[in-house]
Specification:
- By secondary structure, this protein is mainly beta.
- The protein has two domains: 72 residues, Sandwich (lipopolysaccharide transport protein A fold); 56 residues.
- It contains one helix and 16 strands.
- Strand 6 and strand 7 form a beta hairpin.
- One of its GO terms (cellular component) is centriole.
Amino acid sequence: MFCAHDSGLYSWMYLVLACGGRLVSPNGTRKEVLADRLTANVTFFNRDIKHVMADQRVIYYADAQTPHTTYPDSIEVLQFPNNQTEKHFPDGRKEITYPDQTVKNLYPDGTEEDGSKEIRFNTGQKDVHTADYKRREYPDGRQETCYTTGPTGHRTESCVSRVF
C-alpha cells in the first residue's frame, strides 16, 4: 500500500496507519485503522479490545467482557456482565444502575443522594457520616457513633450499647 504525504518527518508506521492499515508492536498489541481513517481497532496483548468509532466514541472491552464506552462529551459508561451500569460524568458524579433498576448517585466529595458519606480505610475501618450521626465501624464489629444531638453510643459484637 502506498500513501503519499508531503512531509518526510513521519515514520513508515505512521504512514501505514494514516492511510488505513495494520501495525503489530513487539509486545503483540495490534492496531488496525480502517479505510475510512476514522475508525480504529486496537487489540492489546492481554486480549483487551478498544474500538475508536468514527463519531469519536471509544468502546473498550476488557477480557471480562465489560464494555467501557467513552463519549465525545466525556461521559463514560461501563456495562457489567450482571447488568449493572455505571455512568461517570465529567464533573466527577457517578450514577450506578443496579440489575434490579435501583439507581444510586455518588458525588465527587463521597456523598450519596441522601447526603450520607461513606469512607473506607485500608485498615478495614469504615466511617459513615449522615445528617444525624457519624459512625466508625471497626473490622471486629465494634461501632462508635456520635449523634448530632450530643450523646455518644458504643456498640460491640454482642450488641451491648451504652450511652456516655
